[in-house]
Amino acid sequence: xxxxxxxxxxxxxxxxxxxxxxxxxxxxxxxxxxxxxxxxxxxxxxxxxxxxxxxxxxxxxxxxxxxxxxxxxxxxxxxxxxxxxxxxxxxxxxxxxxxxxxxxxxxxxxxxxxxxxxxxxxxxxxxxxxxxxxxxxxxxxxxxxxxxxxxxxxxxxxxxxx
Length: 162
Prior knowledge:
Elements: E1 5-10, E2 16-19, H1 20-23, E3 29-37, E4 41-49, H2 52-58, E5 75-80, E6 85-89, H3 90-93, E7 103-105, E8 107-108, E9 111-112, E10 119-121, E11 135-141, H4 155-161
Parallel strand pairs: 1-11
Antiparallel strand pairs: 1-2, 3-4, 4-8, 5-6, 5-11, 7-10, 8-9
Protein name: Oxidoreductase molybdopterin-binding domain-containing protein
Domain Oxidoreductase molybdopterin-binding: 6-114
InterPro entries: OxRdtase_Mopterin-bd_dom (IPR000572), OxRdtase_Mopterin-bd_sf (IPR036374)
């Protein structure tokens, strides 16, 4: 049996490659989730797994400790095996801000996800679009800057706009 793994990368002191058994080392939380799926209607599932906040905090995000609000510029990108992506802000999962109970699900309806890979579970979302199955990568990025000018448009795009 081959275990699915995810790459934890970005602005982290301790990037890692984690499997579902690795994710079971953190405290496990359970949540019943109901969300609307555009293709199959309302879905109801019970998930168990660690909080995303706990896993990422242990990886050592590159916050400036002298600036309490520095955490607010960090974004979290999650990618699944099917290429589906979702973005979260650090403030969504941080207990000092929104404290959303976002999980890395390692079990769905009492079925282990060792082979399929963990799922991103957002109990607070009414729509299931940000639920990611078979997570392959989580990237924490503190390089985002508000107000950074957009790159200049290529010359051919500017000419076509005239």
